[in-house]
Amino acid sequence: IEMYNTMGGRFWKKSDNWLNPGRPVCEWYGIICDDDGDYVTGINMKDNDLEGTFPSALFSLEKLNSINLSGNSIDFPFDGIEAAKALEFLDLTHTDLTSIEGIKSLSET
């Protein structure tokens, strides 16, 4: 919900189930989960009219391995990204990103 609130969710092209309390997170538009539906493994909000700053709290999702935010008017703070231990794919092309300072905190495993 933090992502919806801080990134202009009510103006997104698609936001199916994001504010539906009866729907599990794995049924929210753009959220990808493991086969059992226990963990969020990906966020794919490509070209969805997101605005603002990506909430760094999402880096703490322990199985998050993919983030695609390309084609949105966003900023992406790399502060805290070292907590995203499973992250393998990050697409920030065609965004408002002005710096990659902090990305060096990622380590190759």
From TrEMBL:
User: Which key words are in the record?
Assistant: Signal
Gene3D superfamilies (alphabetical): Ribonuclease Inhibitor
| Keyword Signal found | yes
Q: Which InterPro entries match?
A: DNA_repair-toleration, Leu-rich_rpt, LRR_dom_sf
Fetch the PANTHER family from UniProt. Answer: DNA DAMAGE-REPAIR/TOLERATION PROTEIN DRT100, L DOMAIN-LIKE PROTEIN
Signal sequence segment? none
Q: What is this protein called?
A: Leucine-rich repeat-containing N-terminal plant-type domain-containing protein
UniProt keyword Acetylation, yes or no: no
